[in-house]
């Protein structure tokens, strides 16, 4: 094994250890708690969700263009 490949393997291993330490330090919560929190957030913000309440036509940038008619 050449000296460069040994250094390369060492650098890769150090990066992997750093990443694993970072992942191990992440605070974790139970799935049931995360689901409850997400449900509560959705219920609290449902009145602001345009997919649920719709978008007023005056604020909708994708509304069909009005056509002009001349009489």
Written account of the structure:
With 71 residues, the chain is mainly α. The protein has a domain at 21-52. Helix content is 58%, strand content 0%. The chain has 3 helices and no strands. The radius of gyration is 27 Å and the shape is elongated. The N and C termini lie far apart (88 Å). The relative contact order is 0.05. The model has no long low-confidence stretch (mean pLDDT 89).
Beta content comes to under 5%
**CA-atom Rg in angstroms:** 27 Å
Q: Which regions are unreliable across 5 or more consecutive residues at pLDDT < 50?
A: none
In terms of structural class, how would the helical and strand content be classed? mainly alpha
Short description:
The protein has a domain at 21-52. It is 58% helix and 0% strand. The chain is built from 3 helices and no strands.
List keywords for this structure.
mainly alpha; 58% helix; elongated; 3 helices; 0% strand; 71 residues
Compile the SSE list and pairings.
Layout lengths: L2 H22 L6 H15 L4 H4 L18
